[in-house]
Design goal:
The chain has 9 helices and 16 strands. With 492 residues, it is of the alpha+beta class. Among the domains are: 40 residues, no CATH class; 291 residues, paralog of FGE (formylglycine-generating enzyme). The strands form 6 sheets. A 4-stranded antiparallel β-sheet has the order 1-4-16-7. A 4-stranded mixed β-sheet has the order 14-13-10-15. A two-stranded antiparallel sheet has the order 2-3. A hairpin with an 8-residue loop joins strand 5 and strand 6. The longest helix is centred in the first third of the chain and has 24 residues.
Amino acid sequence: MTRNSQTLIGTFAFILAVILMSSSCGRETSSTTGWEYNNPEWGGFEKREYTEQETGPGLVFIEGGTFVMGRTEQDVMFDWNNTPRRVTVSSFYMDETEVSNIDYVEYLYWVDRVFGETYPEVYRNALPDTLVWRDPLAYNEPYVNNYLRHPSYRDHPVVGVNWVQASEYADWRTDRVNEMILVREGILELNVEEQVNERNFNTEAYLAGQYEGVVRENLRDLDPRGDGTRRVRREDGILLPAYRLPTEAEWEYAALGLIGNTVNENIAERRIYPWDGHQLRAEEDRVRGTFRVNIKRGRGDLMGVAGDLNDAGEITVPVYAYWPNDYGLYNMGGNVSEWVKDVYRPLTHQDVTAFRPFRGNVFKRLERDEEDEVLPKDELGRLQWTEVTEEETATRRNYRRADNINYQNGDLSSSIYYDQEDVEEETEQLMYEYGVTSLISDEARVYKGGSWKDRAYWVVPGTRRFLDQNEASSYIGFRCAMDRVGGPVRDN
């Protein structure tokens, strides 16, 4: 071999070594083990790029913080159920508007298309109660027949929806948005025709490996034990958290919109309404004197005088009517009252914790078989959940039971029988003896805000009322929220 050949081979070897070293140096390594991420030769542990949570359709970002939750003016109803308390709410996302009729009719169409032929009861259970418009001494049949589906009302908030229906809508919306994301990212094909009954896309079923769909191109699998491809996992950060009803604290915090009058952590003025000042009318020159909110102005006056209809709404108005608050949320004071996630208790503000307060926890887990495998999804394509058992909570310090609805307010320890032994189980409910001494039960849910049918008192975000979760009305609607994962400040 000539000297030139040896020199050439040596040069190639040097270049190859440099390339290999550069390739190795280009991979990120674990700061605790030194092993390389995203390298099949090192076991294939993945660390995917992630910058910021995607804002789901219809949502706006609500930066969290501390505020005084509860009464901000005289308790004219003498309910004593909103005692002021300072709490902290984490950042989250919330619907810009109330869920409209067109939004809900889209949901009904999907339910009928997927379940209508085999399980018509699913569609019937999702239908709003349009008879809530009836009044023995009023002619409201036009609303009974037209309000939900006529295009004139398509942008008005849906009503006649109970708390259970609103929660199920949020679950449905979660699945449709995450399915859309997987289609958009080129992972799944859009296959509307095949999605019937249990074959419809469900986020939790997909993550548990119980939904396949029509795969376009799965992600590359770096695990040497695999076949080279894999489905999306929660760790990838591609799928969004679930849509849900906001908690009472979240709703009240978002309605106040204190971010608009805070300077260097000082609140310039304590708000009564979702805007500054003590007036229900606008003060700006161009719109001076017009109402900021759709409410009942007085006895028999729901919209003003002909020729100058001040709030321009005898019942509801479109969800984008009026001005948004400082978070960009519309109609947080009026139009329709809104369901929130909490179970109602009169003294909730004294009971709950100061961080992310909420009453209504019933802790659950996915049902599994004897081999610890997740049970197959049901006939509607949903995974099966069950309450955690006493055996599972026996050694825990932070909670001891699955159902915490009555925790410290309705359970035995908070009743007059707290020091008695061998108390009958039903006695625990005597504190709120539903139908006898109280209308409060474990199915009483909070709703917040004023409506087209209410006086100005209910515009105050701190006010609160309740209704059975299976009942509906012509003045209660809802909007959805979503958890914020990660830090409280969004990276723009």
